[in-house]
Amino acid sequence: MSVSRTPPKTDARPTSPSHFGSDPALYTPESRQLLDSNIMKRTKRRFNDPSNTADITLSDILVRVEEIKKQQDSKFTSLESSMKELTNQNIDIKKSMMLLSEKYDEVLGNLKSLQKENGSLKSHIKTLETKVEQFEKNMRTSMIEIRNVPVTEPENKEHLVEIAKRIGTVISVPILDSDIRDAFRIKRKDKPSGIIVVDFTSTLKREKFLRATVTYNNSNSDQRLSTNKLAIAGPDKPIYVAESLTASVRRLHYQTRLFAKRHSFDHCWISYGKVFLKRKGDQHRLRINSEEDLRNLEKNI
């Protein structure tokens, strides 16, 4: 025996997913409506839409290309002009450098020429100074210098000649008027009495006078030549008689005396315008011709 069942009645209303108390309300009618409103429909573009067709023609493209070409040509022309200007400036700078180089070579050549000429002139001046020095020495070969004699007023040549005669009497070398060519006093700022220069008529007479003076002073060390010996009024002062020296020899003699004191040389003297040095007990004497000789001698001491 067959059994038939009748199917259960179904509800025609739309169903929605089951919702449990612990699940969020994801599929509620309100959320579905909100989701549908946020979805935008995409519309398809039609190929036969006249607004999307290209409206640029070949002539427009050519015009645009021509404009770009003109702009490029203008920029190129400006760049070319700037390059030419820089090139010209470089050429000018190069010319200036070449001119400066030529001027430098010219100045350098002139400088070398001037240096050579200067050396030649110095040598010539040195030669002239030597000749003048020798000429002055030759002129002074018959002259003596008398120092530390007070000035008396009025003073004339006769008075100066008389002083030379008195010295000659003291040292036992009689002097006549004919033995003296000239006599004069050279005044100096550092020494009010100055220097009396006596020019003899012969070199032999001068040498005899000088030797006799040295002999007298050595023999009378307690009573050397002085103003009292010559009967000159005033306090007694020593009187010095020596060769007449040129300025250069006088300076050399002064420097040599200082050198002798520093290095214990016992004797420093002048003979015939030449300066000499000597140590005590040493038979060898040193002739000093210039200050350079003193510097070289100091290096070897």
UniProtKB/TrEMBL annotation:
Residues 69-145 form a coiled coil. Residues 1-28 are annotated as: Disordered. Residues 1-19 have a biased composition (Polar residues). Keywords: Coiled coil. The keyword Ligase does not apply. Residues 246-297 form the FP protein C-terminal domain. This is FP protein C-terminal domain-containing protein. It comes from Arctia plantaginis. The lineage of its organism: Eukaryota, Metazoa, Ecdysozoa, Arthropoda, Hexapoda.
